[in-house]
Amino acid sequence: MHNNALSVYATNAVFSDPWYGVEKSLVVYYRFGKFRVVQKHVTEGKLLKIVFPGFNHLKPALVKLPGKVLVLRAVYGHKDVTKKVAHLVALHHFHIHAENSVFGDSWVGVKKTLSVVYLKKNGMFRKKVVKEHNVLTIHP
Fold first, then answer.
1. C-alpha radius of gyration, the chain, whole number
2. Whether pLDDT at 110 is above 90
3. Beta strands 125-131 and 135-137: pairing type?
4. How many CA atoms lie within 13 A of 75 on its CB side?
5. Strand pairing of 47-51 and 69-76?
């Protein structure tokens, strides 16, 4: 942390190499206090920088849940798919296929992951990640 910013390189030297020979991405979810969850991601070798903007720039988090689950953020490859996943969950689709046919191919030729952060009605946060061609299950 320096000058109200946190910086980290998405490299194998920092995070190890769980998928040798495969280009990876780093996805980070964060929030300041009771404010909304924010997501940032970078591809392997790039610098991820989170700057604390001050409270005047933050939007308050949602506090009322319209259903059993509130999808806060979702990413497939390089693509923010929060709205798509939230729509599926609103339709009671709790088994979500991590497929290009569902989310599009945001990173051609690279095996992707689907990463979802959600809030349950009981106030518990959950994060789930699955590899492409697998099913992510949200338990309301």
1. 16
2. no
3. unpaired
4. 21
5. unpaired
Q: What is the reported pTM?
A: 0.65
Nearest by Cα to 75 from 128, 133, 22, 119: 128
Could you tell me how many residues make up the chain? 140
- Residue 26 corresponds to which tokens in the numbers above? 């780093």
> CA–CA separation, 38 vs 78, rounded Å?
15
73's tokens: 């953020």
Running DSSP on this structure, what letter comes out for residue 100? H
> Which carries the bigger pLDDT value, residue 43 or residue 133?
133
Give residue 24's pLDDT.
80
Round to whole Å and give the CA distance between 71 and 53.
Answer: 23
Q: Among candidates 108, 111, 4, which has minimal Cα distance to 49?
A: 4
54-86 pLDDT, tens digit per residue, is: 544 444 444 445 567 888 889 898 888 989 998
